[in-house]
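Sequence only, no structure available. Ideas?
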Amino acid sequence: MKKNYEILKGLPSYGKMYIPITNFENEKYSEGYVVRFFKKDGTDWVTNFGKGWSNYSNVFEFCYLCV
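Reply:
I predicted one. Tokens follow.
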């Protein structure tokens, strides 16, 4: 089964701007947990999750249409 995401070691140096997801304004440009998501149409997008209060980070896939 093909994964719908890829965990990156850092922010891409070229391409479209990443989407910052953080609770703190000053972390928008700080590297955190970087993930590339792949859409069904073949395109992708990168997000940079801000760091939390612990070192734990993970990606969970779920299907809301699955029974």
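The chain is about 0% helix and 25% strand.
Hope that gets you unstuck.
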